[in-house]
Write a structure and sequence with these properties.
Number of strands: 9
Helix content: 25-40%
Oligomer: single chain
Largest sheet: 5 strands, parallel
Strand order of the largest sheet: 7-6-5-8-9
Structural class: alpha/beta
Radius of gyration: 19 Å
Distance between the termini: 26 Å
Length: 318
């Protein structure tokens, strides 16, 4: 891989929000992945790199998380800044303050805001009223930081992204949305298999297909997991009942019974396929232990990259 050259100004990333992959060009997203790989190299080489020295990130959590909190908090520290964990109980929005007031107040104190919440509209409102960069750390619509870490892992293992096929087996949820758009941006072939009624949002499918038509990629939505996974380079799945849908667990277990990624299903993928899962995983439900813990699985490389991908995003926009 060519030596990385920091060119944040060239891509005009400073001061921008990171809300969805659709908001960025293919070149900008690839730059951020290359930046993440360079930051990973610097860390492992013991090189000090503090572009965010003296800066602070406010982290709003309305959904609990292991990987998101640790990776953002440690990432800010490694970049020379500090992070403040703010739960709903810590903020007045938990007691009825409107998001506009919270956004404008925090903008006077910190240099960036990260939010992990349920309603995507809350993220958009926060970004509208904040005068500092806002980062989407997950909403019910998308999970762009995870997708960036995922595609970084694929690039590191495969050496390229263009032309690869990624098969997503399971719920057409926020994770599927971001992976679909990311694949379209990178000129990849994205195929998702979900039961009818659990497909990705129609608007997201349309947008992704439009992007893919320009980059040389493709988007296929089907109810047949074997069709979706055929000759796949990457196989991806997620829990059947995402956070906020726990009451549907039993219903979803029945609907997705034929969609487990197991040893039989992955035989239809390429022999050197990579298995990815955003975690946490439920072994024996959406994926068998043999697959997620098998030789093709790179789930912990993928999880590690949340740190590096998010550092690149923060350093570029803050």
């Amino acid at each position: 891989m060519a030596q990385f050259v920091e060119q944040t100004d060239k891509f005009m990333l400073k001061g921008r929000d990171f809300l969805d992959l659709a908001d960025f060009s293919s070149e900008e997203l690839r730059y951020l992945i290359d930046y993440a790989i360079e930051l990973k190299r610097k860390l492992k080489a013991g090189e000090t790199y503090h572009p965010l020295k003296g800066k602070s990130l406010g982290m709003i959590f309305e959904k609990s998380s292991t990987r998101t909190r640790v990776s953002f908090e440690v990432g800010m520290y490694q970049l020379g800044g500090q992070a403040l964990f703010l739960s709903s109980n810590d903020l007045q929005i938990g007691r009825g303050e409107i998001i506009a007031d919270t956004a404008q107040t925090l903008s006077r104190y910190v240099d960036g805001i990260m939010i992990r919440t349920f309603a995507h509209t809350k993220l958009l409102d926060l970004a509208q009223y904040a005068t500092i960069p806002v980062i989407n750390a997950l909403t019910d619509w998308s999970h762009p930081c995870q997708a960036m870490a995922d595609y970084q892992a694929v690039l590191e293992h495969k050496g390229h992204l263009e032309g690869l096929k990624i098969a997503f087996i399971g719920d057409g949820n926020n994770m599927a949305h971001s992976l679909m758009m990311g694949a379209a941006k990178f000129g990849m072939n994205f195929s998702i298999a979900s039961p009818v009624g659990y497909w990705p949002d129609a608007e997201m499918i349309t947008q992704s297909k439009q992007v893919a038509s320009v980059t040389g990629g493709s988007v296929v939505v089907t109810a047949d997991p074997k069709e979706a996974i055929a000759d796949a380079d990457i196989v991806y799945t997620d829990v059947w009942a995402s956070m906020g849908f726990e009451e549907e667990q039993k219903i979803r277990e029945k609907a997705f019974a034929e969609y487990q990624v197991d040893e039989g299903l992955v035989k239809y993928a390429k022999s050197d396929y990579l298995f990815l899962h955003c975690l946490p995983a439920h072994r024996g439900e959406e994926v068998s232990a043999g697959v997620i813990d098998g030789r093709n699985s790179i789930i912990f490389d993928e999880a590690e990259n949340r740190l590096h991908a998010q550092k690149a995003i923060m350093a570029a926009i803050m």
